[in-house]
């Protein structure tokens, strides 16, 4: 785990990061993957890191929003790399906020510990490609991703999502991914979301087209994926 992690930014209001809830979004910098289509290069590439708010500043803001916000989404980067995450979440939960954690799934031990401690209410796992392709993203232990996805499914404490990249996520690739996790086929807790170019870590991906929601839904239907939010 990296000592360059920490809070990299704060979005004070979001209506889309946790469907059905009014939330603040806390961005944690530092990531152990290098997905070329990543939309948050300033949180992934240490050369681009900027100063973010201190945890105490974020806590003070959240105290002022009690009764207005439903919860807090912690995303990244990869939040499970941050040593200060459990202490930060304890402070958030003490303010009676619900917590959603976005993760790439590479640290199932951290996810399990946070769930056991009651520090996280919902976990969203990014299932990026089939497991055999994860080493191309810099992942040396794709079985950890399998463990996290299985954990979230077994505990019914979150969902799984895949960002559809034009030219990469074909019907064949999605079929391979569903064979790895048969429980995802037709499940309401698995959703596809469209790739959005513009700020990708690899600039060449910014020249790829953005699929429409209708295109994503049609691709999902061909392999038996239910296209809906949860």
What does this structure look like?
This protein is an alpha/beta fold and 230 residues long. The chain has one domain: Aldolase class I (TIM Barrel). It contains seven helices and seven strands; from the N terminus they run E-E-H-H-E-H-E-H-E-H-E-H-E-H. Strands 1-2-3-4-5-6-7 form a seven-stranded mixed beta sheet. Strand 6 (158-164), helix 6 (171-180) and strand 7 (190-194) form a beta-alpha-beta unit. The longest helix has 14 residues, at 142-155. The radius of gyration is 17 Å and the shape is globular. The model has no long low-confidence stretch (mean pLDDT 94).
Strand content: 15-25%
Overall average pLDDT = 94
The structure class reads alpha/beta
Cα-based radius of gyration, to the nearest Å:
17 Å
* Number of H/I helices: 7
What are the low-pLDDT stretches, counting only 5+ consecutive residues below 50?
none
How far apart are the first and last residues' alpha carbons, in Å? 31 Å
Coarse morphology: globular
Query: Helical proportion?
Result: 25-40%
**CATH architecture identity:** Alpha-Beta Barrel
CATH class: Alpha Beta
> Order of strands in the sheet with the most strands?
1-2-3-4-5-6-7
CATH topology: TIM Barrel
**Helices and strands, in N-to-C order?**
EEHHEHEHEHEHEH
Describe the oligomeric state of these chains in a short phrase.
single chain
The biggest beta sheet reads:
7 strands, mixed
CATH level-four homologous superfamily name: Aldolase class I
How many strands? 7
Number of domains: 1
């Amino acid at each position: 785990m990296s000592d360059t992690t920490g809070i990299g930014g704060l979005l004070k209001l979001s209506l889309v990061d946790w469907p059905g809830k009014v939330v603040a979004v806390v961005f944690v910098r530092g990531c152990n993957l290098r997905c070329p289509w990543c939309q948050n290069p300033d949180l992934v590439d240490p050369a681009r890191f900027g100063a973010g708010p201190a945890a105490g500043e974020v806590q003070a803001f959240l105290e002022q929003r009690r009764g207005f916000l439903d919860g807090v989404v912690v995303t990244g980067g990869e939040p499970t790399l941050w040593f200060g995450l459990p202490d930060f979440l304890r402070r958030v939960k003490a303010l009676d906020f619900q917590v959603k954690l976005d993760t790439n799934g590479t640290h199932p031990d951290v996810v399990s510990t946070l769930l056991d401690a009651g520090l996280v209410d919902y976990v969203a796992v990014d299932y990026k490609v089939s497991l055999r392709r994860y080493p191309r993203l810099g992942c040396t232990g794709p079985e950890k991703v399998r463990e996290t996805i299985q954990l979230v499914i077994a505990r019914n404490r979150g969902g799984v999502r895949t960002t559809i990249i034009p030219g990469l996520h074909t019907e064949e690739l999605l079929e391979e991914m569903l064979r790895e996790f048969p429980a995802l086929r037709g499940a309401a807790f698995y959703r596809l979301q469209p790739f959005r170019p513009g700020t990708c870590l690899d600039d060449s991906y910014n020249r790829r087209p953005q699929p429409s929601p209708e295109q994503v839904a049609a691709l999902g239907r061909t392999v038996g994926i239910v296209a809906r939010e949860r």
